[in-house]
Design brief:
This protein has about 400 residues and is of the alpha/beta class. It folds into 2 domains: about 120 residues, Aspartate Aminotransferase, domain 1 (Alpha-Beta Complex), CATH 3.90.1150; about 230 residues, Aspartate Aminotransferase, domain 2 (3-Layer(aba) Sandwich). The chain is built from 14 helices and 13 strands. The chain has a 7-stranded mixed sheet, with helices on both faces. Strands 9-10-13-12 form a 4-stranded antiparallel sheet, with helices on one face. Strand 5, helix 8 and strand 6 form a beta-alpha-beta unit.
Length: about 400
């Protein structure tokens, strides 16, 4: 299930403290259960903690930050820093890790799309930066494939640019003119009429910078390197998804001249279009720590842990009459990781998958999962180790109760 397709606005009920958690024996790269806080702000504010048995979704606060990220945030929160210097140093280290010319931390991938477009329009011209999005003269144009249009391309038009839709190589060639400033490729689009390689080649032929939005497209870790090797001038990933950095942080990396221009359009500069999208120092340190931890991770071990989780939960659910489970891997490029597909004979287990989803989210604890017309999907990659058996037990209880 793609990140753009998840329905929002789920009704969530409070989580009570009556359910005792069980520690799991699984190896974990996910955060471990927190120690009981001295002050329970969830309870104080009446906010419902949620178990995420789905995928990374912004409205569910992305993912849980790793201990390395929390340590980076806490250890740097006691001193001030010059934000220009910090972005220099953090960007430099990130560029080294990703083997690119330059990099910066943004407030998410959407911000990176806006800053990339702004950079392509203004370059380092301070007067253009000051006037954006109300530049005089012809309206700048950004080329996108028709099938790649999506909600987040509003970040492009926020700069004052116009999106030109194309289908196929010939249309892209013909669409490029003196007003064209950039070409945007949405990596998780279902269909493409132009390949990555052709898209880059056509743009380069006309000296047009290219941006690839790959926000939710790790794992695999290789995707962090793949697209700049193809030749994209700029690439963006979300920081708060499977990289497990701060939810409001993201990565933008690629050509040095374009990153320089993007930074001029961003905070801490005082007047540019990106000023409202500032990133604080703790998020910059946290994003650096998150990327370093992600690259250092044993990805094969993590993948096996996810497979073990699906098998473990599946074995519990299959004790219910007619229930069958299957480990499935989304083909990606977004959310390309294992999850558990659950099916049953509704003549024997008299409940529909969507009703199971509702029962999970409105129960105690509140669990968010996904369901189709004929199956339930239980996500495992975002579960804390102590939540694996909780999710298995709740799903099993709901199914058993419908027998």
């Amino acid at each position: 299930m793609k990140r753009r397709e998840i329905l929002k606005g789920l009704a969530l009920l409070p989580l009570t403290s009556s359910l005792a958690s069980k520690a799991s024996a699984f190896a974990a790269t996910t955060p471990t259960p927190p120690k009981p806080p001295a002050r329970d702000l969830f309870k104080e504010l009446g906010v419902t903690p949620v178990i995420n048995a789905s995928v990374t979704m912004t409205f569910l606060s992305g993912s849980l930050m790793l201990p390395e990220v929390l340590e980076a945030i806490n250890s740097t929160s006691h001193d001030f820093a010059n934000m220009y210097e910090l972005q220099d140093k953090v960007g430099g280290k990130i560029a080294e890790m990703l083997q690119v010319e330059s990099a910066m931390v943004t407030s998410g991938a959407s911000c990176a799309i806006l800053l990339s477009t702004a950079a392509a329009i203004t370059g380092t011209d301070h007067e253009k930066i000051r006037l954006l999005p109300n530049l005089p003269g012809p309206q700048p144009e950004v080329i996108m494939q028709k099938t790649h249009r999506y909600l987040f391309d509003q970040a492009v038009t926020t700069t004052g640019a116009k999106i030109i839709e194309v289908e196929g190589n010939d249309e892209m060639e013909k669409a490029i003119n003196e007003r064209t400033v950039m070409a945007l490729f949405f990596n998780a689009a279902g269909k493409s009429s132009i390949t990555h390689e052709d898209f880059v080649a056509i743009a380069k032929k006309h000296n047009i910078p290219t941006l690839l939005d790959a926000a939710a497209d790790v794992p695999p870790v290789e995707n962090l390197f793949k697209f700049q090797k193809i030749g994209f001038d700029l690439v963006t990933f979300s920081g708060g998804k499977m990289i497990r950095g701060p939810q409001s942080a993201g990565l933008l990396f690629g050509r040095k001249d374009l990153i320089t221009a993007a930074r001029l359009n961003h905070s801490p500069n005082e007047a540019p279009i990106g000023r409202p999208m500032k990133v604080n120092k703790e998020e910059m340190f946290g994003m650096y720590a998150a990327l370093k931890a992600y690259l250092d991770r044993d990805h094969k071990k993590e993948w096996q842990d996810w497979l073990d989780r699906t098998k473990h939960i599946g074995s519990q659910l299959e004790t219910v009459q007619s229930v069958k489970t299957e480990t499935v891997v989304d083909p990606g490029p977004a959310n390309a990781f294992p999850s558990l597909k659950v099916t049953w004979d509704e003549s024997k287990v008299k409940i529909k998958p969507e009703e199971v989803v509702t029962a999970l989210k409105t129960g105690t604890p509140s669990i968010v999962a996904n369901g189709g017309k004929d199956h339930l999907t239980v996500g495992v990659v975002l579960l804390r180790p102590d939540q694996i058996d909780i999710v298995a037990g709740r799903v099993r209880s709901i199914l058993q109760g419908a027998v």
